[in-house]
């Protein structure tokens, strides 16, 4: 079995795949790193899935295959739902005007009084009604027609002004425990301590460094965290495997020629 892994750098084009632009819908909001789409989601995950599928095929009598995994292909595949929406006239090319790309006031990220952020994603009407209730907007006539796109900007402005009157912790106190599709936007330092993550041991310590735990998990055996490199030990091992003798390795390490 052979695998081929390529990205957009191998294609002579001026712009990246369409989804690389879709992530950054509203530039004033915090957005995930773009390589989550290309390198990881559209690239490595697709390659890993292809390898597992090919191994299963071999176990069933297949002769093996070459897996051609390109980041451009995988990134485009991740956009399948959006392209389906676009084909039916439900999605516009402009950024920040669609329901799922911060165009809707009920599917967006908002800044709080303490310069932190909260996210809201209340698509279903019963959850939207709960959000209005918790925000004290149930009787506000301007907020009632949830899917009137002509009013989304005005409704967002009203919701943004309201949310900015309280701190993130204060909104947590109001929202958590209710079906309002609300959550705090946590920093990298805060996320490991979130109750959901601690309950599932989502983060582990590997080599004195906090890291996400291996995923997915299996009922038949426990997945252990990978061993982190411990300084010069790995350097010595690699150089020895390349044919360098012990004295030469020690000399170079002591001289600072290698780290």
Tally of helical runs: 11
Specify Rg, calculated over alpha carbons: 25 Å
Calculate the mean pLDDT score and round it: 86
Helix content: 40-55%
State the major sheet: 3 strands, antiparallel
Q: Tell me how many strands there are.
A: 7
How far the N terminus sits from the C terminus, by CA atoms, comes to 35 Å
Query: What general form does the structure show?
Result: extended
Describe the strand arrangement of the main beta sheet, using strand numbers.
Answer: 3-4-5
H/E order of the elements?
A: EHHEHHHEEHHHEHEEHH
Would you identify the regions where 5 or more consecutive residues have pLDDT less than 50? Answer: 8-27
What structural class is derived from the secondary structure elements?
A: alpha+beta
- Estimate what percentage of residues fall within beta strands: 5-15%
